[in-house]
Design brief:
heterodimer; A: alpha/beta; Rossmann fold; B: two-stranded antiparallel sheet
Chain lengths: 324, 342
């Protein structure tokens, strides 16, 4: 019964929103229903636990109770599908567009189209190489800083011990992979840590596992440290390390970025050694910015959400109260 | 000697051996196999284990291609079967129970069978072009898988399920035995009964075989159903390997690799004659090629280009026409004193 009532209420709200659209600019009259801000959100896909938490956060923040009507699209990590989704948002005449760009390049045309149509664009999570006057604002995390934090931990713990390190990179060409690599390399520069190899595992468990198996076959037990650009690849690598007869967290020290639930669990269990958080709960900040740009207020071009980092003991403490 | 050279399996096998030699030269540890905790361990063993999902999918693809069809939906079917199986295990109170796991696998594969039957229905009964008919599921299937997992990556802890892809029997990976079983079953059904010949007949000339009394519709329908079931098992192996249902990444692009494996093995995309042994070699070639990228340390940015170049070379080496042209060219360039030389 409750469900039916909710359905009726929802239908009513949608109907109100539609009349609101049709009579565009007319005095709405009714409750809050016709003041909904229509937002198109082009998500990358759902390639990792981090992404799922990020999607949930945005869906919650851009809900109808908060005064939004969300048009959601997940692009399965295909850039052309994502650009097509943004085009369709422009054609639908949404009030604002939120994009989590899959890759850095190739956004100039479609962002110009949005600008010409007078629709403000807010970038979330990853960045683009396009000129910054084509979008209103970017909300995200400092990937370079995350890489640097991970690198500093490696430097502080292993400099001077001639340790060998391998890297599982994220998707080739994504800003997360590029910036994390840059930050990490900067931090370990000048140390005697030897980077044996670096290959992409596409941010997936399967990719991380297969590449780690290859590394282990190639270098045997020379590998001392693994740096994975996200938790999922690190989790995939765990099985490969165990299968090679080594103990993850001891024989091979593992440092990753993200701090999703499964990753934190592995850290608490002593299989990972250090995680730099990449906070996926960007929804509120995005919702706040959307409201401001639609109202015509000026906003900052870059909004950085601060990150934490965890070692094994901190993970045990933090795990029970983590929201994701 | 000539007989060996002319055998249609000769060049595919040479391509595979060349890759193994290349890897071994780059790093001799490639070929070494050691015993670890009573299990064989080495790069070649990894190839045997990791090739299992592609092996199953390629065998199904081969049967479909033999009927002059193509099945683009295999990757999506993998995602669905994995999502179904893992959701059942995740929701059950006893994920470590063998019964639960068997039910989950059975349901996952049954759903895949239904999807295969749907493909077959569109192609054999409705008469939709195979590429379009299976494209429908290729695009929609992944969405269904995402719907089942709720957009999240479902992870489970279940020892019997883990055994599927990560367990060992008499030192060898269990997944490899699954591959062998699939190869033997397909080879027996297609080669020890008339079914293989009938499949080839349908692929070579559907009209003539219909007039000759071959029930083409049933054979084509069955091919897609078989492809669905094999893809379903591949999905189980994939999820068992990482113990997570990743609806986006499971079996992504595997349809293309499967087509490649079938073609590398010497089966023509035009339908008709097919070779089980060739497909098996093709699958191992592709899987070895993937390790080659790691072993040679090809930077990730250029890895796809490297893969493409090697595939082109392998295909060219197998091309009879090209080999003929090279032989002629060599003959033309040879100094003209053959009588004296002999």
């Amino acid at each position: 019964m409750k469900k039916i009532l909710a359905g009726v209420a929802l239908a009513g709200a949608v109907a109100l929103a539609m009349t609101g659209c049709a009579s565009d600019g007319g005095s709405g009259g009714g409750g809050g229903g016709d003041d909904l801000i229509t937002v198109g959100f082009a998500q990358t896909g759902s390639e990792s636990g981090w992404r799922s938490a990020n999607t949930e956060s945005l869906k919650t923040a851009l809900s109808e109770e908060n005064g939004f009507k969300l048009v959601f699209n997940a692009a399965d990590n295909k850039q052309e599908a994502q650009i097509a989704a943004v085009r369709s948002f422009i054609n639908q005449g949404v009030d604002a567009i939120v994009i989590a760009p899959i890759t850095v390049d190739g956004w100039d045309d479609v962002l110009t189209e949005a600008k010409d149509a007078g629709i403000p664009v807010i970038l979330e999570d990853r960045t683009v190489s396009a000129s910054d006057d084509l979008y209103a604002s970017w909300v995200g995390l400092d990937f370079e800083k995350e890489g640097e934090t991970a690198g500093t931990w490696v430097k502080d713990n292993f400099d001077g011990q001639a340790q060998n390190l391998v890297v599982l990179e994220g998707t080739t060409g994504s800003s997360a992979a590029l910036d994390r690599a840059t930050g990490f390399d900067k931090a370990i520069e000048g140390t005697d840590i030897n980077v044996l190899d670096s290959q992409t595992g596409d941010f997936t468990r399967d990719g991380g596992k297969k590449v780690m198996e290859g590394f282990l076959q190639k270098y045997g037990n020379q590998i001392n440290i693994l740096f994975a650009h996200n938790d999922d690849m690190g989790l995939g690598a765990l099985d490969a390390i165990t299968a090679a007869g080594l103990v993850p967290g001891q024989d091979i020290k593992i440092v990753t970025i993200d701090a999703v639930h499964d990753g934190m669990q592995a850290l608490a269990d002593g299989k990972f050694n250090y995680i730099v958080e990449c906070n996926p709960l960007l929804g509120e900040k995005v919702a706040d910015l959307v409201k401001k740009v639609v109202a015509g207020d000026s906003v900052e071009k870059r909004e950085i959400v601060p990150d934490q980092s965890f070692d094994q003991d901190q993970a045990k403490e933090a795990l029970p109260t983590r929201p994701y | 000697m000539k007989k060996i050279l002319r055998h249609r399996m000769f060049w595919p096998v040479i391509a595979l051996l060349a890759l193994i030699v290349l890897n071994t030269i780059a790093r001799p540890s490639f070929i070494s196999i050691t015993v670890q905790n009573g299990q064989l361990y080495g790069a070649l063993i990894d190839i045997l284990r990791n090739s299992a999902p592609l092996m199953l999918v390629s065998l199904g693809m081969m049967i479909v291609i033999a009927t002059r069809g193509i099945d683009l939906s295999v990757g999506a079917i993998m995602a669905v079967s994995g999502a179904v199986a893992l959701t059942i295990i995740a929701d059950s109170p006893s994920p470590d129970d063998l019964g639960t796991v068997l039910v989950a696998i059975l349901v996952g594969v049954l759903v895949s069978l239904l999807l295969g039957i749907w493909n077959g229905f569109l192609v054999a009964v409705v008469g939709v072009q195979p590429i379009i008919a299976t494209l429908v599921l290729m695009l929609a299937g992944r969405g269904v898988a995402l719907l089942i997992t709720g957009g999240f990556i479902t992870t489970i802890n279940s020892a019997p399920y883990k055994f599927m892809a990560q367990g060992y029997v008499i030192g060898l990976p269990f997944a490899f035995f699954v591959s062998i079983a699939a190869i033997v079953i397909v080879a027996l059904i297609e080669r020890r009964t008339a079914l293989g010949v009938l499949t080839e007949a349908v692929g070579i000339n559907p009209e003539a075989s219909r007039l000759a009394g071959v029930r083409a519709r049933g054979i084509i329908w069955g091919a897609y159903a078989a492809s669905g079931v094999l893809a379903g098992f591949a999905g189980i192996l994939y999820t068992s390997n990482i113990m997570a249902a990743d609806a986006n990444a499971a079996g992504l692009y595997i349809e293309l690799y499967a087509i490649l494996a079938v073609v590398l093995g010497g089966t023509s995309l035009a339908g008709g004659k097919f070779t089980v042994a060739g497909t098996v070699v093709g699958v191992f070639t592709i899987e070895t090629l993937r390790s080659t990228i790691l072993f040679l340390g090809v930077p990730s940015a250029v890895a796809p280009l490297f893969l493409a170049i090697v595939v082109v070379i392998v295909v060219l080496v197998q091309s009879q026409r090209l080999r003929g042209a090279v032989a002629k060219l060599a003959q033309a360039l040879r100094p003209k004193k053959p009588e004296v030389a002999r």
